[in-house]
Amino acid sequence: MTDLAAFIARLPKAELHMHIEGSLEPELMFALAKRNQVAIPYDSVEAVRAAYSFSNLQDFLDIYYQGADVLRTEEDFRDLASAYFDRAAADNVAHAEIFFDPQTHTDRGIGFDIVMRGLTAGMDDAHARYGITSRLILCFLRHLDEEAAFATLRMAEPWLHRIEAVGLDSSEMGHPPEKFARVFEAAAALGLKRVAHAGEEGPPDYVRQALDVLKIDRLDHGNRSLEDPSLVARLAREQMTLTVCPLSNLKLCVVGDMADHPIDRMLAEGLRVTINSDDPAYFGGYVNDNFQAAAEARGLGREALLTLARNSFLGAFLPQEEIAAHLARVDAYAAEG
Ligand code: HPA
Ligand SMILES: [Zn+2]
């Protein structure tokens, strides 16, 4: 292991942008397909991996929603979450805020409660086993309509004690944040925090809508904000956390080459950026792989890596005293490292 890889491996960090359905590794997909007797259009794990070549977000989403079809039972969701937490623990993730897409499941006849019971069991196991804390973020699929989002929010009401925030994901272009203004307002009234994917493929105006209309607490991706200097200045001034996903950006052609990734420019602009894995089973790596790829390509040194780790805790939906304790651990690591 290089010095850089060793430094990243032991760096305490939070992961704030990870879709649990996107952590479904081909091996587990096959195992669940067999357990549930679900047909999948691949005959080997290698064939699944070979299919993971995307030229944009929609290419990926088509395959990702198809993969999720093997998830049927509470045990499946628990196994899915446990597999992610095993990897997260290995990457020294102390806290994870995890997206899930209930509509992908309820629209196939899988009960909201099945999903919640399985995921929360996996989260509780991870806390007991590794001490990892976690939160769930319910994402609305933006290619579906407002009414469907409201129906999902109603299903979530008995589970609000286990849901921290609502988010917005899926096909961005043509589905601007303002389409979900009322459902985000209703979520806020229920005491939920708000995040949204914006500026991954969509224009800076979608980021502005997420800020002004959805009143987000955190911005997922946000890359295209860089096209608008006044927006960058505002994001920096407001210390909005951006959850950036370098390997995702590469695989979905948000950047042409990792050597062109704007992570260091974002840091230099004073943005509170974090590094995350997005859909690790599909994009070729977990959070440390994302740190490594970005650091190598853009020459990030220890100070930048420590800033990214601090930002991940500063942007977490945790009580102030827990954030302070995590920051103290990063400081101790910096002093020893
Ligand atoms: O990166 C993403 N963007 C939008 N929707 C998603 N759903 C899973 N990953 C993503
Ligand atoms: Zn995402």
From TrEMBL:
Its cofactor is Zn(2+). This is Adenine deaminase. Keywords: Hydrolase, Metal-binding, Nucleotide metabolism, Zinc. One of its GO terms (cellular component) is cytosol. The record marks H221 as: Important for catalytic activity. The active site is at E200. One of its GO terms (biological process) is nucleotide metabolic process. Residues 12-332 form the Adenosine deaminase domain. It comes from the Bacteria. Pfam families: A_deaminase (PF00962). Substrate binds at D279. NCBIfam families: aden_deam, PRK09358.1-6. Its EC number is 3.5.4.2. Catalyzes the hydrolytic deamination of adenine to hypoxanthine. Plays an important role in the purine salvage pathway and in nitrogen catabolism. Binds 1 zinc ion per subunit. It comes from Allosphingosinicella deserti. Belongs to the metallo-dependent hydrolases superfamily. Adenosine and AMP deaminases family. Adenine deaminase type 2 subfamily. PANTHER family: ADENINE DEAMINASE (PTHR43114:SF6).
